[in-house]
Amino acid sequence: MQLIDGKAAASQWIEETQARVNMRLSQGKPAPHLAAIIVGTDGASQTYVNNKIKACKNAGIDSTLITLPADIQEHELLHHIDDLNANPRISGFIVQLPLPKHINERTIITRIKPEKDVDGFHPQNIGKMVLQHPTLISATPLGILRLLNHYNIETSGKHCVILGRSAIVGKPLSILLSQNSKPGNCTVTLCHSKTPDLKSYTLSADILICAIGIPEYISSDMVQAKTVVIDVGTTRVTDLKQKKGYRLCGDVNFNSVAPHCKAITPVPGGVGPMTIAALLHNTLEASEQHV
Ligand code: NAP
User: Quick check: is 194 in a domain?
Assistant: First the structure.
């Protein structure tokens, strides 16, 4: 079994981004600038957004964190988005999801200027991705493509089984990996909660990508020796032995699956760091569109 080290791959990617940022600076261009809006005080969201903001420094990217109260009205949040859209110093920005229930996520995401949508969630960017036009691609799928490339994992002609059809992970990945590209050219099966006999699909996977958010759902009897397992799941599970009182848990039972499969990503240290590196890459790409 090969351990797919997302931390190491992300660190190399961030170094490459930093080198490109330095090149920009040496040409007298401004550093890329990422802004992040967080609404409310959800612990997991705060951790994710803080990690993204902290990582900017490593790539030489400027950052701004905008923290807004949970009871902010939708029109007020839209006002912040309009400000960031109009601010020439901001290369790109994200609105950390999920948002409080009284705010319509679709309205918010659609208001972000597509050129500044470094999360790649805007319908225009998703449409371009489907048509293989150059665009900003969602950070987690982009990070997974890069990880497969980094580890020279062959995708062409392989059967890729994806669990979970969210608009931010499963669905875009199913499109990207089935395209005529590298990585790509997979035959993709996209499974969800209504898929009967999930095991019959997971057992036929050359590449198994799990993004369902159910801790340790995938056990060793669901995976074959030929399978490369990419675990996207990150659920906080109570663990009083940890200082924080919880640990991050993937969708795959790592200890039982790892000895039986070809390669596997750990949680944490697999897809998570690649998502952050992809966001920094997208911020740089967005800044190159501006100047
Ligand atoms: P999501 O919106 O939480 O949706 C879960 C998906 O899993 C749905 O499509 C659901 O099917 C499917 N599902 C649920 N139970 C299932 C089952 N028993 N068998 C097969 N499919 C099942 O998805 P998400 O936002 O992509 O998040 C998934 C996980 O990835 C979460 O743990 C999240 O925290 C993590 N995540 C990690 C990163 C990272 O950077 N590491 C980034 C994004 C997300 P239906 O559509 O039928 O309901």
Answer: yes
